[in-house]
Specification:
This protein is α+β, with helices and mostly antiparallel strands. The chain is 33% helix and 35% strand. Strand 4 and strand 5 form a beta hairpin. The radius of gyration is 19 Å and the shape is globular.
């Protein structure tokens, strides 16, 4: 019997899509300890205000808060410690070149499990201005109104 890969998203940074234009995405493995894995599986983590820094040829998530596991006692780690991302050297090099462009940054978008492995979806993002955010909201509202009109037209 083949194993199925469950890719249910456990934690999502919904604010990132509002604050940034996501140019491209990369899937990276996430180095976690046992009690951190259990907390993430329970959804006790927060991606708000987190970002990815490249240091000495390695990628780290900074500001990713994972709440201590209730039954973890002495095995719990610091909730705000920097978590390492597992990426190939070529991927890190490509991300480094992408962030050297003016106005681009690396933002964590989602955390999920692929089988038993914790994964993070990393976005190469460019910041939105206030007028860009307003335009996005207007497009979403217009699309919602069109969908509503089509549904109501079909009922008559």
């Amino acid at each position: 019997m083949a194993k199925t890969k469950d890719r249910s998203v456990l934690i999502e940074n919904r604010r990132a899509r509002h604050e940034y234009f996501v140019e491209e995405t990369v899937e990276a493995g996430l180095v976690l300890f046992g009690t951190e894995v259990k907390s993430v599986r329970h959804g006790k983590a927060n991606l708000q205000d987190s970002y990815i820094a490249l240091q000495n040829g390695e990628a780290f998530v900074i500001g990713f808060h994972i709440s201590p596991y209730e039954q973890g006692n002495i095995f719990n780690r610091d909730p705000m410690r920097d978590k390492k991302l597992l990426l190939h050297k070529s991927e890190i090099r490509n991300l480094d070149m992408a962030t050297r462009r003016d106005g681009y940054t690396l933002v964590p978008l989602k955390v999920y499990f692929s089988g038993n492995h914790a994964k993070m979806l990393v976005g190469v993002c460019r910041g939105k201005k206030l007028y860009d955010k307003r335009a996005t909201i207007k497009q979403r509202d217009d699309q919602r109104e069109m969908d509503r009109a089509f549904r109501n037209a079909g009922k008559q």
